[in-house]
Write a structure and sequence with these properties.
- The protein has about 260 residues and is of the alpha/beta class.
- The chain has one domain: Rossmann fold, CATH 3.40.50.720.
- It contains seven helices and seven strands.
- A seven-stranded parallel beta sheet has the order 3-2-1-4-5-6-7, sandwiched between helices.
- Helix 3 (about 75-90) runs parallel beside helix 4.
- The radius of gyration is 17 Å and the shape is globular.
- The N and C termini lie far apart (about 45 Å).
């Protein structure tokens, strides 16, 4: 028997669309939204992975789940994703722009234009287009909320991921801009995430990362994926009804 939901965080019969929703932080948010009553749209480039999460949602929570293959770096695929979600459910109440990419490069001076453009497209262009399209639908209907998953790199840029940091700084800027554009019906906020032990952590030198965290972070550790859930539920629900244009740091106290 499922525990009674706190009405402040209730998403009953809402529809939540999460990009990058098949793994990592995106998967955690999808499952949390479904547990709190939402039907979900799970979008990522790999349809098989989306279908796996959709099946988990249906079996665990009895909510509707729609899996969609979409590369948000492509303007037309963003438009198609918005249209497919609306056709499936009739509306979207919560949009989470979570899909992101930060590939390594040998040096700043040898960084190739194609890689730079790819990073900007996935981390900034896609969220811009989806927010413009879905936000406009929300504003014309019954409102909604949009959450942009940014990065602490936006304010702590490192030469090792400078295009990513620039894209996330731009994402912070459009968060406030869209809050003004689509208010008062639509609230737009961001989560500026620090280091989380998602799938990417498999490539880390974990001992070195943990030592860095102990020396650098106020909480002295990296985040676990499920620790995104509280912030996401807050911003997705009526618990944050007077919050818009805000960027929440969720980074363990990174210096």
């Amino acid at each position: 028997m499922m525990a009674t939901r706190d009405p402040l965080f209730d998403l009953e019969d809402k529809v939540a669309l999460v990009t990058g929703g098949s793994r990592g932080l995106g998967r955690e948010m999808v499952l949390a939204f479904a547990e709190h009553g939402a039907d979900v749209v799970i979008a990522s480039r790999k349809i098989g992975a989306c279908e796996e999460v959709a099946t988990e949602v249906r079996e665990r929570f009895g909510r509707r789940a729609f899996a969609v293959a979409a590369n948000v770096s492509d303007w037309a695929q963003c438009d198609a994703l918005a249209a497919d979600a609306c056709q499936e459910f009739g509306h979207v109440d919560v949009l989470v722009n979570n899909a992101g990419l930060s590939p390594l490069y040998p040096s700043l001076e040898t960084l190739e234009e194609a890689l730079f453009d790819k990073v900007i497209a996935i981390n900034l262009k896609g969220p811009f287009r989806l927010t413009a399209r879905i936000g406009a639908q929300m504003a014309a209907a019954n409102g909604g909320t949009i959450i942009n998953i940014s990065s602490i790199g936006a304010i702590r840029p490192d030469p090792a991921f400078l295009p990513y940091a620039a894209a996330k700084a731009g994402l912070n800027a459009i968060t406030e801009g869209f809050a003004r554009a689509y208010g008062p019906a639509v609230r737009v906020n961001g989560i500026m995430a620090g280091m989380f032990a998602t799938d990417i952590s498999k490539a880390w030198d974990r001992d070195a990362v943990d030592q860095h965290a102990r020396n650098t972070f106020a909480l002295q550790r990296v985040g676990e994926p499920h620790e995104i859930v509280g912030a996401a539920l807050y911003l997705a629900s009526d618990a944050s009804s007077y919050c818009t244009g805000a960027i929440l740091r969720l980074d363990g106290g990174t210096r």
